[in-house]
Design goal:
Number of strands: 15
Oligomer: single chain
Radius of gyration: 17 Å
Structural class: alpha/beta
Number of helices: 6
Distance between the termini: 8 Å
Bound molecules: citrulline
Strand content: 15-25%
CATH topology: L-arginine/glycine Amidinotransferase, Chain A
Number of domains: 1
Order of helices and strands: EHEEEHEEEHEHEEEEEHEHE
Helix content: 10-25%
Largest sheet: 3 strands, mixed
Length: 256
Amino acid sequence: MFKNVIVRKPSKSMADGITSAPELGKPDYDLALKQHENYINALKSCGVEVTRLDLDERYPDSCFVEDVAVLNKKCAIITNPGAESRKGEEKEIINVIEKFYDKDKIEFIKAPGTLEGGDVMMVGDHFYVGLSDRTNQEGIDQFIAILKKYGLTGSAVEMKEFLHLKTGVAYLENNNMLVSGEFIEHPDFKDFNKILIDENEQYAANSIWVNDKVLVPKGYEKTKKAIEDAGYDVITVDTSEYRKLDGGLSCLSLRF
Ligand code: CIR
């Protein structure tokens, strides 16, 4: 179960955030703020305490806090983002993490290693890490070595289609996993109960389990129904403005 969540308010500069889909247009800032509030309320309804960080205009993608740290029961790992414009963002999360973790339990991924939290999927004590454009082998090697110190394990996942690992796959606990695109037949995930995401609903693969409820982006009815059929309470949250920046429900928070 998760007790805490950290979020960061989106900055106005989010209009300059990285995107692979400029055809979707620039995010509407006021709407993005409203959606952020709704997201926080949805999280609160799952029984977590939400810590809100101030906006940071220097980093257009800084509302996507998931990428700058990986938090678990034993330790916190500050990442080293692979995207040039996001380098430095990880330093801005350290203060708040020190409120929750002892200093000697805070670890760091160091250059030339790169790793972004969107590439990390926690399944119990094991962490799958996508080898993506943002996360390199050196970053994964450092990450796994850190996990080992705490009695945890990790493994690299080969991928080519998605931005981050969790753009295409989500663990919903109880051995249930949402899978889309290249992950449907991926050998690493063959032993899970797979809930297949329809080709037209790929964005909804980035849903999140929070204390037995599942947050699903609004507008993806087939995915919503499939998750409900698997026995979960679903809460839908509109993330249209974040989708314009390739971001979704998982990217917007750190859950621990
Ligand atoms: C980026 O490209 O870094 C942001 N525009 C989106 C980050 C999404 N984060 C995630 O999937 N964890």
